[in-house]
Every structure is written in C-alpha cells, then in structure tokens.
Amino acid sequence: MINSVRNTVFSVLNKNNYGYISPQDFNLFAKQAQLEIFENYFSDYNTAINKENARISGSEYADMTKGIEESIDTFSTIRNFDQKAFNRYFTPSQLTTGDDYYLLNKVLAYTTFVKSGISGISPQPFTMRDSGFAGVVAVGDILVNLESLEQTIITNVSNDILNLEDNIFPPPSSGINYSIFKPENYEVEKVTNSKISMLANSLLTAPSKMFPAYSLNTDSVTVLPKTINNPGQVFSQYIRYPKDPKWTYSTLAGGQPVFDQSQSDYQDFELPIDDEVNLVIKILQYSGIQIREAQVVQFANLEEQKDNQQ
Questions:
Q1: According to the model, what pLDDT value does residue 223 have?
Q2: In the chain, at which residue ranges do the beta strands (DSSP E only) sit?
Q3: How many CB atoms lie under 10 A from the CB of residue 118?
Q4: In this structure, are residues 250 and 260 in contact, taking their beta carbons and an 8 Å threshold?
Q5: Residue 39, pLDDT score
Q6: What is the pLDDT at residue 11?
Q7: Contact 241, 102 (CB under 8 A)
Q8: Which pLDDT score is estimated for 294?
Q9: Cis bond upstream, residue 231 (ω within 30)
Q10: Burial of 276 (0-12, 13-18, 19+ CB in 10 A)
Q11: Integer distance in angstroms from the first to the last C-alpha of the chain?
C-alpha cells in the first residue's frame, strides 16, 4: 500500500508542479500520518460507543464500532515481560519485545512455577530438549522462551523432549533460558503508586496469589505479592504502536528513485486498506507545509473535512 499512497501523493503534487518530496521526507510524513490515524482510532471508538449507547448507531454493515474494533485488534499482542529485578518486569519496548506499547490492556501472571533451565539442541521443529521433565512437567503446561519472550503450550512430555504447540525453539537453537508454569493465570490489577504500599501493608487488602496487583513505573511494572518473581511469569495483552513505514528504493531511473520492496528495511503501512485515503490526505498536509505551498494544505484540509462528514 505504501507505494500506492506515494504515487497518489506525487500525482497531486506534480499536477501543478508544487514541488518534490524526497524519500526521506516522505517516510517521515508517512510515519506521522500513520500515528495520527492510529491514535484517532481510540477517540473514534469512544464516539461510536457513545452513539451506540444513545441508539443513534447502525447495525450490521452500518456498525461503525465493529470496524474500529477490528482495526485496533490488528495491533493486539500477547507477550511475556522480561524480568528487570525480582518482582519487577520491563514493559514492552523496542529493546525487550521489539515494539512499543500504546496501552496495557491486561496484565496477567502465572502463579505456579514448575521448572526452569537452558535448552539443548532441538531435534526437530515444535520441540525443546533438556532433561528432568518426567513427573514434573505435564501436558498443558506453559513454556516460555526467555530470549524471544514467546510462550506456547506443551503438547507431549518425555524425560528429555517436550513437544510444543508453537515452534518457539526452532532448530538448531540451543542455550536458551526457559521457564515452565502451570496454565492457571490471574489478571493483575493495576494500582496507583500512591496506593500500592498501603495495600501491601494491609491484612485485608494485601495482594495475594489469586488477587495480584501491579504498579506502573517508567519502564517496568512492580508486581505483588513478591512470590511472583520468576522470569517469564508475567505477561500482557497490549496494544502496540504500528511499525514505522518505510518506502525503499535501490536504483535510479532518469534521476528518480525506483520502488524496491525487497530491501531488508522495507516496511509497509500496517493500517487497513480503507485508510489509504486518509493517509494520502494527511501526507499531503505535511508535504504542503514542507514545500510552503498553502494550496496543497488547503486541498488536503478540504478533503479531510469531506471525509469526516461522511
């Protein structure tokens, strides 16, 4: 979609020779446009819910709430948290999970630790090798790869081989730390930093195994009770930010860059295709400001107003 958006933007700009936007500038504008549309999903969702509650919203194909939900759900991710120290766990970031989070929708914890260790060389896909599994690990337990922070369900157990539902230890991977937990998990309630100490010191409200709590810090969460302190024990369902789009090229034809999506750093837009018009409009707004062309900005603003009225 990114090449189609760029071609449309350049078609509008070139119609009256408004100016040229370099690939670097286009990628910057594309990133900002995608972020703006992504963040608008949540305000649009709130508006749609209010209309639904006021009984002025449609149903079936006219159900706007459903469409916005589906757009947001494409950014929903379930990942384990990397342990920072004891009962503190890093929140999702480029360094830990490979993506930044917009919203921690749910934080959960496995409350029964089973076993940890270091994987050997997997004999085949969907397996993990170590020793001492028999009588300790059971089918249905949760295995967490502490390097990739992925988790999966154990489907078969022998003393030194585990069969897995997902291939999170692809051969010939080895030397990877792992943790295993019983599948029972509980949602961890968010508590403000000003109240977490008060709760912890109360006999009646102290967080427990069945009713854990967490407080959010700059780059981590602190989970109580302190018995929740194993690597991979805390995980979250969160909404991540979309990846930065990048229009890539490799050669020049007649002095112009030629699109090449085979480049290693190529990244398409992650928004649904029905947002292509919005992307074009917003990139034109940024482009008009950059080339100091008021008519481009006015045109884009007018198109955005028309789109919002529909």
A1: 93
A2: 76-80, 83-85, 88-90, 101-110, 113-118, 127-129, 142-145, 150-157, 161-164, 177-181, 185-187, 189-190, 213-216, 220-224, 234-240, 249-253, 256-259
A3: 11
A4: yes
A5: 93
A6: 82
A7: yes
A8: 53
A9: no
A10: middle
A11: 23
**Separation CA 129–CA 306 (nearest Å):** 60
How many other C-beta atoms are found inside a 10 Å radius of the C-beta of residue 265?
7
- The SS3 assignment for 69 reads helix
| Sequence-ordered list of residues with C-beta below 8 angstroms from that of 181, at least 6 positions apart, any chain | 110, 112, 113, 114, 141, 142, 144, 230, 232, 233
**Distance, CA of 251 to CA of 138 (rounded, Å):** 55
**CB 91, CB 82: distance < 8 Å:** no
User: Would you mind telling me the total number of residues written for the chain in this entry?
Assistant: 310
Within 8 A by CB and 6+ apart from 27, the residues are 244, 245, 246, 247
Mean pLDDT by 10 residues, the chain (310 residues): 88 67 87 92 90 78 83 92 92 90 93 93 91 94 94 95 94 91 94 82 83 91 91 94 92 76 92 89 75 52 58
Q: What is the pLDDT of residue 218?
A: 87
Pairing label, strands 249-253, 142-145: unpaired
The DSSP letter of residue 67 is: H
Say which residues have a Cβ less than 8 Å from residue 125's Cβ, sequence separation at least 6. Answer: 167, 170, 171
